[in-house]
Amino acid sequence: MSLIEFSDLQAGHSVKITGKFRDGAGFLAVEISLEPALKDSEIECPIQSVDRRRKVLRLCDQEILIADDLEMKDEEGAPLNAVALEAGDMIKLKGRHTPAAGFVPKRIKLRETREFNIEQVQGVIDKIDHERKIFWVNGIKILMSGKTVIELGETPEEAREAPTPYIPI
User: Fold this and answer.
1) Residue 1 lies in a domain
2) pTM for the full model?
3) What is the distance in angstroms between the CA of the first residue and the CA of the last residue of the chain?
């Protein structure tokens, strides 16, 4: 494991963050891993609320629109109807984030909800505030503590390269 400093992180870097979301405060990172360019962004956390009338899930203080053609599966991989989702359910979303549209999922998979869930956010750093040591990924505010570990991912050579400029679509 090769540790790096917060000052090494830049907007445009791809990261995988493990931690815990705190309602109204942001996602508290336990571990941040700098990764090579990612194909999709991901959010894995419990649902805060479900608005069936508007077809919207709220998670990590973000409203996620559930499109009619969205691929949804249960824990075993069987098709899942959005009506089955409840607040507190652990889900994993794969998709894409843009500042204009927010997080737009391609797939949702229901995860087993346990007494202690490991939550993750994976994507590109949208913006960063080096002074306050906070940054945003998938529109989610990422906070750090004195115990947060920042490391290079599995392919350090690719991760160390200068970030690709973030260009909203």
Assistant:
1) no
2) 0.85
3) 34
Residue 38 lies in a domain: yes
Residue 126 contacts residue 99 (beta carbons within 8 Å)? yes
User: Which residues on neighbouring strands pair with residue 51, listed in sequence order?
Assistant: 56
Q: Who contacts 138 (Cβ-Cβ below 8 Å, separation ≥6)?
A: 41, 43, 60, 62, 97, 103, 121, 123, 126
Domain count, the chain: 1
Q: What is the pLDDT of residues 12-69, one digit of tens each?
A: 999 999 999 998 899 999 999 999 888 899 999 999 999 999 999 999 999 999 998 8
Q: Are residues 119 and 44 in contact, defined by beta-carbon separation less than 8 angstroms? A: yes
Side chain identity at 69, as an amino acid letter? D
Cα distance between residue 112 and residue 27, in whole Å: 20
DSSP of 92-143: EEEEEEETTTEEEEEEEEEE---SSPPEEEEEEEEEEETTTTEEEETTEEEE
- Residue 73 included in any domain: yes
Residue (of 128, 141, 161) closest to 36 by Cα position: 161
